[in-house]
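PROTEIN DESIGN WORKSHEET
SECTION A - STRUCTURE
LENGTH: 399
TOKENS:
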């Protein structure tokens, strides 16, 4: 007898085939000891200690969010009001707001407070189908505070965590007139202490943050410590960081609103994933990445929420997927791949975001909007119209 059987799933998308997304109908999935042990005809499904009906539901792999800043303290609702009044994000940052405002609040919070806040955000994401999330530091900007943020992520969390060190998020106030000293601190003090708590190293290379030379030095230092490389790339201004990071082995480069088409071939050749963040594009009113050039070059595209307290307070990966279609030109098929299998590739975990032998096999059961067919297109057309019925993580019912 197996532990858990999900029977009679009306439509299942395993994501194994990019053409039809591995679509199967009237299929059952069985789990034992946390692992998928049966996938096949519902009539031949084994008996189970616990059974859940998938009739009328859509099954997709557990969603993977490849880019979040889910651990922080403080609020930036006032910044939203300022931007609605016409101020731009870069100006607010230069005046000590934006990221620096969150730094002040996060430095003042205890590790346990940060854990509690992050856990609450991730619990909400789990209820919407996200079972894995990349989570960055970057609101500490000091040796102790960056370490505190990553340490907060070591506590048990409702979703699987891929932690990223982002000490190079911006220059803190105390180093504004001596940025070289802060870069040295990141490389010589922050990274050696924080690397054991992280899987990846990230930089924010852009106007008002770090320049190309500083960013590459930090990424190389992180890589030397065994971390995967990734970068906030070409968001506000073009810097060349996307191509440069790809050349040193970046698993992904994120944002890409200002990416030049001549750099696209480099991403393709280096097999670097392009991570689209439509929430930030929406809130900051930025242009879209060059989707046609990326698509024609065969660059793998993932989609994330970029959950953060200022420029993308977006908690729902389904909404991010829909926005990627509306604002960035993805097809619905590309968007679903972007929040599942391709997102797993983006964070360096190729077993995530699909269902089958060798996969993690998390599962989300979703009820389509009233009157809509049990197809993934129904989930992506309607914002908030569908409802997550159940989430299976590590072979157990998580919601």
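SECTION B - SEQUENCE
RESIDUE ASSIGNMENT:
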């Amino acid at each position: 007898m197996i532990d858990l059987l999900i029977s009679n799933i009306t439509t299942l998308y395993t994501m194994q085939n990019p053409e039809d997304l591995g679509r199967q109908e009237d299929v059952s999935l069985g789990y034992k000891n946390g692992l998928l042990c049966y996938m096949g005809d519902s009539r031949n499904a084994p008996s189970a200690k616990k059974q859940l009906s998938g009739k009328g539901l859509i099954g997709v792999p557990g969603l993977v969010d490849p880019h979040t800043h889910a651990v922080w303290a403080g609020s930036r609702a006032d910044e939203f009001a300022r931007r609605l009044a016409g101020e731009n994000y870069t100006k607010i940052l230069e005046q000590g707001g934006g990221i620096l405002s969150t730094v002040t609040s996060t430095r003042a919070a205890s590790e346990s407070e940060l854990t509690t806040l992050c856990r609450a955000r991730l619990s909400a994401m789990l209820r919407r189908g996200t079972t894995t999330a990349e989570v960055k530091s970057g609101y500490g900007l000091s040796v102790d505070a960056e370490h505190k943020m990553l340490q907060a992520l070591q506590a048990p969390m409702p979703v699987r965590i891929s932690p990223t060190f982002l000490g190079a998020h911006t220059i803190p106030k105390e180093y504004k007139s001596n940025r070289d000293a802060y870069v040295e601190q990141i490389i010589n003090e922050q990274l050696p202490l924080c690397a054991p708590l992280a899987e990846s190293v990230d930089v924010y290379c852009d106007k008002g943050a770090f320049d190309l030379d500083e960013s590459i030095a930090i990424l190389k230092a992180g890589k030397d410590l065994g971390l995967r490389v990734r970068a906030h790339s070409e968001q506000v201004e073009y810097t060349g960081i996307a191509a440069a990071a790809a050349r040193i082995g970046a698993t992904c480069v994120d944002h890409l609103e200002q990416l030049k088409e001549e750099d696209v071939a480099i991403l393709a050749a280096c097999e670097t994933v392009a991570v689209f963040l439509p929430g930030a594009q929406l809130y900051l009113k930025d242009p879209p990445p060059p989707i046609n050039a990326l698509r024609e070059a065969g660059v793998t595209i993932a989609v994330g929420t970029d959950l953060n307290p200022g420029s993308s307070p977006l908690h729902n990966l389904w909404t991010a997927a829909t926005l990627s279609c509306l604002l960035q030109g993805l097809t619905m098929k590309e968007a679903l791949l972007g929040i599942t299998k391709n997102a797993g590739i983006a964070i360096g975990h190729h077993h995530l975001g699909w269902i089958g032998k060798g996969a993690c096999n998390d599962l989300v059961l979703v009820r389509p909007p009233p009157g809509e067919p049990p197809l993934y297109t129904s989930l992506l057309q309607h914002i908030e119209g569908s409802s997550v019925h159940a989430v299976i993580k590590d072979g157990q019912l998580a919601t």
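SECTION C - NOTES
The chain has two domains: 2-61+353-397, 63-347.
The first strand starts at residue 2 and ends at 13.
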